[in-house]
Structure formats: C-alpha cells, structure tokens
C-alpha cells in the first residue's frame, strides 16, 4: 500500500494543485481513464469545502490530504480542522443523516455523486471526507 500525504494552507489557489496531484496519483494507481474527471472534481470539491471552512474558523491551520492505493481502491481523505456543529461524535455515518444545509452548503452531495464510495466523519475537531474509486493497482509511470 502506497500513501502520499499533502498539506496546504487555506488558499483557493492551492485547490488546483491538490486536484492535479490527486489525478496524477489516481492515474498511476490504475484508476480507469474515464473516472479521472470524477476524481479531479470530487477532490476539488472536498478541498474547496475545507478551504472555505478554514477561512471562516481557522485560517492559519493547514488542510491535509491523504492519497492511498489500498486493496484495489484509490482512496483520498481530505481533512480539515474547522469545527462542525452538525454532529458531535467521531464516527462515520450515513450521508442521509446530514442536514440539507450541510449537504448543499459544502458540496458533500456533489462529492457523493462523483466518488464510488464516500464516508464523512464530522466532529467538533474538524471533518474528514474519505472518497474512493476502483483501481487495478498497477503502478505506471507518470
């Protein structure tokens, strides 16, 4: 299992870099070419949501992205440190449990439509959004 970690400051300009890195790694881990746009858009949406949350609550804290190739899946986790009033537990839950304002205001619904599998872990300490797509696990050159 290969893992890449990326952190960036809460600036909108860094979202593009995160999208490019995620797309390159997805391609390298064997995500089908037809899914790469979905990867790029979902990662961009999750990172934009994190930037927005950080700018409002903790602009000096970095946003963290973890990209991994695990058991035939390409998995991306975008983590912010902005508090969530939505849920007070550190457990994953069904996306249907989120309020309409949380879903529409932060692009979670868009992400759920783009990624093969999505889990959201909101807590008072921040939110993790884990997305994944099928990958054949072959490493190719960039």
UniProtKB/TrEMBL annotation:
Keyword Transferase on entry: yes
Recorded superkingdom: Bacteria
Entry keywords, A to Z: Kinase, Serine/threonine-protein kinase, Transferase
Pfam families: HATPase_c_2
Gene3D superfamilies: Histidine kinase-like ATPase, C-terminal domain
Domain Histidine kinase/HSP90-like ATPase: from-to ranges: 8-133
Keyword check for Nucleotidyltransferase: no
One Gene Ontology term of the molecular function aspect: protein serine/threonine kinase activity
SUPFAM superfamilies assigned: ATPase domain of HSP90 chaperone/DNA topoisomerase II/histidine kinase
PANTHER family, alphabetized: ANTI-SIGMA-F FACTOR RSBW (PTHR35526:SF3), ANTI-SIGMA-F FACTOR RSBW-RELATED (PTHR35526)
Protein name: Anti-sigma regulatory factor (Ser/Thr protein kinase)
UniProt organism field: Nonomuraea pusilla
């Amino acid at each position: 299992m290969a893992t890449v970690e990326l952190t960036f400051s809460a600036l909108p300009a860094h979202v593009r870099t995160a999208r490019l890195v995620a797309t390159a790694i997805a391609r390298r881990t064997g995500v089908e070419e037809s899914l790469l746009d979905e990867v790029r858009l979902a990662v961009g949406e999750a990172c934009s949501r994190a930037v927005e949350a950080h700018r409002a609550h903790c602009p000096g804290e970095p946003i963290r992205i973890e990209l991994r190739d695990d058991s035939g899946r390409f998995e991306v986790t975008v983590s912010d440190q902005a508090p969530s009033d939505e849920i007070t537990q550190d457990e994953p839950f069904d996306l249907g449990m989120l309020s309409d304002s949380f879903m529409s205001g932060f692009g979670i619904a868009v992400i759920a439509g783009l990624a093969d599998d999505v889990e959201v872990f909101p807590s008072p300490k921040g939110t993790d959004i884990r997305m994944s797509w099928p990958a054949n696990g072959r490493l190719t050159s960039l």
